[in-house]
Each structure stands twice: as structure tokens, then as C-alpha cells.
Amino acid sequence: VCRDPRWGRCYESYSEDPKIVQAMTEIISGLQGVVPAADKGRPFVAGQ
């Protein structure tokens, strides 16, 4: 929660109101879903 405009990353926060921040973080969790328990491999780096 950004309450001090001197903080350089205030523009990245949702609001100064904690209730709005809570609602927005709940939306993010809903959009991202649950992390799978089983490991399904590794991403390839540089095509290898």
C-alpha cells in the first residue's frame, strides 16, 4: 500500500485504500490459479 509519494514505485500499487488493495490481490490469485503439485518438466534455455 503506497502512502508516501516519494517512493518511486507508487504508480505500481493499486490504491492507498487497503480494502481496494485486498480486493485486487484476491482477483490476481483467482486469475493465476493454483500452482500444480507435480513437476511437469523444465523450460529449455536457448533451445537446448
UniProtKB/TrEMBL annotation:
The keyword Hydrolase applies. Keywords: Glycosidase, Hydrolase, Signal. Its EC number is 3.2.1.21. InterPro entries: Cellulose_Degrad_GH3 (IPR051915), GH (IPR017853), Glyco_hydro_3_N_sf (IPR036962). GO terms for biological process: glucan catabolic process. Signal peptide: none annotated. It catalyses: Hydrolysis of terminal, non-reducing beta-D-glucosyl residues with release of beta-D-glucose. One of its GO terms (molecular function) is beta-glucosidase activity. The keyword Iron does not apply. Gene3D superfamilies: Glycoside hydrolase, family 3, N-terminal domain. PANTHER family: LYSOSOMAL BETA GLUCOSIDASE, PERIPLASMIC BETA-GLUCOSIDASE-RELATED. Belongs to the glycosyl hydrolase 3 family. This is beta-glucosidase. It comes from Punica granatum.
